[in-house]
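Throughout our pipeline, every protein is held as a single compact record rather than as scattered files. The record that follows is passed on verbatim for readers who wish to inspect the format:
___
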Amino acid sequence: MLTGLALLLAAAPCAAGPPHTPGPVGELKRGEKLLGAGDVDGAIRAFSAAIRAAPRDPRGYYQRGVCHERKKRADAAIADYRQAVKLRPGFAEAQNNLGALLHEKGEQARAQAHLRLAVRAKPDYGEAWFNLGLVLEEQGKGQDAVQAYKRAARLRPRDVDVRINLAAALHRSGDREGALRQMKMAATLNPKDAMVRFNYGSLLMEQKREAEAEPQLRAAVRLEPTHARAWQRLALVQGRLGHLEPALASIQQAVKLMPRAAAVRCDQGRLFRKAGKVGRAIASYRAALKLDPGFARAHLLIGLALASQGKCRPARRAFAAFVKTQKNTPPGTLEKLTKRCRGK
């Protein structure tokens, strides 16, 4: 997440452009007004003039870097931010933006160094703490990321993205209750955000709190009816709660939205099987295999469904296909599975 300074405040557009004031300060002000009016190219020219007038003033480089980001010129922005922090190492905003861009380019060690300089120069800089958390997570430093996100949350208590990322980091670290508290806070801050409701419902689902997960996932699909994963997870939660008809309706929505997702077809089959519709379950599993012939679990589920019907020979063939497709199955797996079937 990248920040600008006062230049990011909107300014009223002027057809002829603001009047020119000579000198670096005048060019900086002119660039700010042009950028606020949406004239990014004009702002770049003004900030370049400011740099020519005062090449050791870091502000011109920083502001021009912001403009380059607006134009999606990451390398040019990085070059300007580097010059800004070379001239003023304690320029927190430039350090933050440079670190964020390096993170996007995959240069995590350099990104972390710049973001740490940003928060050292400006300890109350919530956005830089958040970006530092992103980098630390990418580096596999989960506990350090949690601490960075917590600092960001204290400084930006109403920032939903901070809450979501903190919740995910806490969940990965094993603090499930802490993760739920943060997701609940995110949902309270932005109840009309489908992704927030989806993430909250998913977290509750993973913790086997289906009765609480269902209304969150329902809200997600109400807010965003094309959210296929929300329909899929809603169906699974409804199935676990024994609400089989609504579950089948929900999974059908997921199938419509993701017709080529083999895993969704398998979930549909499992729900059909739970509802006692074994033939339709087998048809769904076979549809999954048609989409992904290497989907080993579909072979297993077909075998179990056939075994429940006493169709042992085709069940054994399905079990054999599972063992052949699934890597590293323990010795004797086929025999154990075959024993589940009594019939012909």
